[in-house]
């Protein structure tokens, strides 16, 4: 199949540093190539891919001293449309920016929505564009926008060989990601303390979260059971997870997916997560971790984390969350789009069908 | 003629406070109605217009607690395209956001570019979209983008009755607008001091310019010849200008137009301006003001400001910069677009033709 993947330009594919969407697009693109498809990736010029790369900007916009970020996005959109005859299917990862263009196109398209959707302005937008086929990354992500034309949920995947399975022999729990009010590092620190376990924290502070970090988090990091590793690279992430007894994920927001959940599973590391967003779709309670609603339950879960079989975590990862599984799920969607007898019936598939 | 005007959504039309583009769109839209055209304005729901108003958002985005500003813009774009059959011509004021859509449309469109264009990312964009007919608001504005398909320059206009002619009987010069490094209020204050004249300053401080204001400007406002009026409303602007001996416009950047220049002229007030951007196209040296390159020349000009005939300033305004003149210039362009025998020849009119 001749497939175009259209990535955001804000980060390279994969991203140099943080950037969940671009990382998934990288894994998906390479996995589609591995599966034998003819794939073209539209992304910034510093992207690294097994596919054919088409770039309208030399570098990722976040790293260039770019004044006008929209210009590159519009330029890329036109480049995609100019070349659309070269492809059987266009797969967009750029939110809704292309909708007014692709609605007018006869090319088969689908769009994976990577972000949080509980933003009031999106409601009238998806009421208007209720014919555009969109893919969710968890079922819970769809909740704020039932009117959108959801054609499937496809979970993210990561390459099966990217993270090494580990036995969790370090005597610590781990918190990974960002310090932000919705990620609740404060809860993670307290859960570990009350369960009498060390905690290693590898997280970054976004500009927007600096005040929150200074006020709510910084002083908590001084406790003797806390080891603060600042922001770490991909290479350090694997061993950190593989040696951890558990990943703590005590979130307080509707997380659309949560890449770190499947990264932990890839390392065989069970997860203790609060029940929000995608959590109950990704974690099987009692099998790959514990889903909790209170701090007491979280502490109890961490004390009982040895009840979770780490082999089961890794096996579950391989079965549900590898890059190849993700790519196969998308290929099935692409084929469905292409082989529909009537174009209209594809575009108007009822919402919430998996 | 059935004309659609498509405004940005960031401010209402006209804007509640600051917002040059939306103000011009308001004047143009109402003037087209006065000229007997059937005009539809796409703008935020709190806009006030003589035309038919179509709104996808209840209020201007800057004043709502909007998380995602792009959503409204994309929604409006689709609304415009859904209704495009109702219009003979679509006139966009929304930069380049619509280009990938209108390029594929058979509807006649033109786009007025209201902002500064010396932004590196715009070059590859306008190389790609070198067929999209664009209108500049001064010839100098075009300089960074010679590859764009410039079809005309149309100067901004304001309603002839909006500002009252005055005799400049106040004993002061005036500086109006924003405190920002490119506007050079510091120069204005020094020019007045050295010419032994009072200066009244009505300007706002944008969030982005707060540091600059504190460091470079605040202490200058304490001088005895300076009267600082903070931000003023439209109603106060007229008398302030009409009683001023001169408007000081000692800019240090390529101003694309400069609405305050024609507002001053409407009041009969001559201008002393540094020679950048649109200045030599709007001001006639020795007739409606003085164009200078140095502080010495600016001081000399202010001392000689009585040599400028205030009646000539007002007459020049009425002849060149009224809302009706602007609307007539646009109508001529619209007609040109509609009556072209070949669509292609209109879209490919050579650049820099006035």
Automatic annotation (TrEMBL), chains A, B:
This is Glycosyl transferase. Gene3D superfamilies: Glycogen Phosphorylase B. Residues 18-123 form the Glycosyltransferase subfamily 4-like N-terminal domain. The lineage of its organism: Bacteria, Pseudomonadati, Bacteroidota, Chitinophagia, Chitinophagales. Residues 169-302 form the Glycosyl transferase family domain. InterPro entries: Glyco_trans_1 (IPR001296), Glyco_trans_4-like_N (IPR028098). CDD domains: GT4_AviGT4-like (cd03802). One of its GO terms (molecular function) is glycosyltransferase activity. It comes from Niastella yeongjuensis. Keywords: Transferase.
